[in-house]
Amino acid sequence: MVAGYRVGMHFLTSALRLLEPRVDDDLIDRLHYLYSSTIILMFALLVSAKQYVGHPIECFVPAQFTRAMEQYTENYCWVQNTYWVPFQDLIPHRLDDRERRQIGYYQWVPFVLALAALMFYMPATVWRTMAAQSGLNVSLVLQLACQDQNLDPLIRDRNVDVIVRHVDDALKYQRDFGSKQKQSFPAATLRPTVLMSPRSI
């Protein structure tokens, strides 16, 4: 029981760590990837809990229906699209009138909301992944640049030197890596290859 609790708490803290703001963003970035995606995801969970746990749809059924018949009718209305009729109108008897008033979007609302939350979060994830691959530690550079101790000229000069060396090393690495890629690409494409047919084996 205690081990299951610890595993659950580990997963919860890992999930909450994803929501932690970072140094390499500003309020607008956080508004997009953190706040908007969290609010939309909470709404998606709320709507899906209502749909898949509670009663997603309430239908007016005749009074002589038993509870099982009412449940069957509501399940049928949920799976088959429903249609709306104002209270003062009569229920249309023609099928084409009913199909014209169909409402078919409500089953997809939680999935669309979850997709929207993912789309708000994806640009920040792509940015972090690409920034980590560049060789430039953006988080470290911004941490050093935004320190309160930078008011002291000696500490500021030391931090500027560290940032300059780091950026210079990252750019040198990218230049060297890019020139190696350019040199190895023609050699790899022009290297003679032996093609073997099934008869020669």
Automatic annotation (TrEMBL):
Cellular compartments annotated:
Cell junction, Gap junction; Cell membrane
- Annotated GO CC locations: gap junction; plasma membrane
Statement: the UniProt record of this protein carries the keyword Transmembrane helix = yes
Q: How does it sit in the membrane?
A: Multi-pass membrane protein
Q: Key word DNA-binding present in the record?
A: no
Q: Any transmembrane segments, and where?
A: 103-122
Please give the biological process terms from Gene Ontology that the record holds.
monoatomic ion transmembrane transport
Q: Which InterPro entries match?
A: Innexin
Q: Mind listing the UniProt keywords for this protein, alphabetically? A: Cell junction, Cell membrane, Gap junction, Ion channel, Ion transport, Membrane, Transmembrane, Transmembrane helix, Transport
User: What domain of life does the native source organism fall in?
Assistant: Eukaryota
Drop me one GO molecular function for this one.
Answer: gap junction channel activity
Family per similarity comment: Belongs to the pannexin family.
PANTHER family the UniProt entry points to: INNEXIN
Q: What does this protein do?
A: Structural component of the gap junctions.
The protein depicted here goes by the name Innexin
Organism, scientific name:
Steinernema carpocapsae
The gene that this protein is the product of is inx
